[in-house]
Amino acid sequence: MIHARGLARTYTTRRGDVDAVRGVDLDVEAGEIVGFLGPNGAGKTTTLRMLTTLLRPTRGEATVAGADLRRDPATVRRRIGYVAQSGSTASEARAGEEVVDHALLYGLERSVAVTRGQELFGQLELDGLWDRKAGSLSGGQRRRLDIALGLIHTPRLVFLDEPTTGLDPQARANLWTHVRGLRDTRGSTVFLTTHYLDEADALCDRILVIDAGQIVAQGSPEELKQRVSGDAIVLTATQPSDVARIAAVAARLPGSSEAVVDGSVVEVRVPQGRTQLAGLLRALDADGLEVDGVELRRPTLDDVFLTLTGRSLRDGEQSRDSADTTDGEAA
């Protein structure tokens, strides 16, 4: 559904040329929900804008929804749906009118637009809101209306840019159900950006991580966690004098990281920690070493980001609306 090679964008500034995206290679298969994640300034927004024809690549090639991105952007636009982070509904317009007007821009007949729009309202739990002004809707309702606009022309590929930003936890969880439904009931391919790691973990079949303008990792959430971070085994020594010996035993586990000691606590990261824990406890017992506490911590996607980029994805979360823009990435 998306095939890109060497996709790049260079900006010319007063300080010279800045490579916002340095040559992205990515593939998205039909029927996938793919998350596109990266810290602020990583090139995420620039890449998304190139893939949706809002920004012309400086170099590189891509096929999106079966059309050439550079040679046939009009066909790309006809075949994709795009839901912008800021939304696209006018507060004073009626919800149904917004959907119908959007459909007319794609060449649909008004009767078809009304029928299809009302079907979408039912699927997205917007029943009874057809004649309501968009500005009177709740945040979750308005976000679902944005999605209806992006789906009215039945696109094969849907781009969702920060779909749940600003929503309360209940509204976010509700919208997750609808995002899954795009794939499960409508057969759409979904490409989404998000700053919420739990969202990427819950929704995405596969995640692409971009940093410094390049894809630095990709895989399912579980694959990334195990490949980059592993599980953390945390041991609390009964006798502080045994800490060094406990750390040495833990460091002998297959695939282990260097043991980290903090007071009487020893932490080591290993692949598949659940299967290695019993053997570690037996080894400690054989060496006459006692522990007061044992904890197995599953890795998170934030651990993945810290390992890959040296930053937490949450570090710039408060400033993302201003920082994660084309100008911000070029600065």
Describe the overall structure.
The C terminus is likely disordered. The longest helix has 16 residues. The protein has 331 residues and is α/β, with parallel strands linked by helices. It has a six-stranded mixed beta sheet with strand order 6-7-8-3-9-10. The protein has a four-stranded antiparallel beta sheet with strand order 2-1-4-5.
List the helices and strands and how they pair.
Elements: E1 2-13, E2 16-28, E3 33-37, H1 44-51, E4 59-64, E5 67-68, H2 73-79, E6 80-83, H3 95-105, H4 110-123, H5 139-151, E7 157-161, H6 169-184, E8 189-193, H7 197-203, E9 206-211, E10 214-219, H8 221-229, E11 231-237, H9 243-250, E12 260-262, E13 265-270, H10 273-286, E14 291-297, H11 301-309, H12 320-323, H13 326-330
End-to-end distance, in Å?
Answer: 31 Å
Instruction: Report the uncertain regions.
Output: 316-331
The residue fraction in helices comes out at 25-40%
Q: Helix/strand/pairing class, anyone?
A: alpha/beta
Report on the biggest sheet.
6 strands, mixed
Total strands: 14
Beta-strand content bin: 25-35%
Quick structural summary:
By secondary structure, the chain is an alpha/beta fold. The chain contains 13 helices and 14 strands. α3 (95-105) packs across α4, α5 (139-151) packs parallel to α6 and α8 (221-229) packs across α11 (301-309).
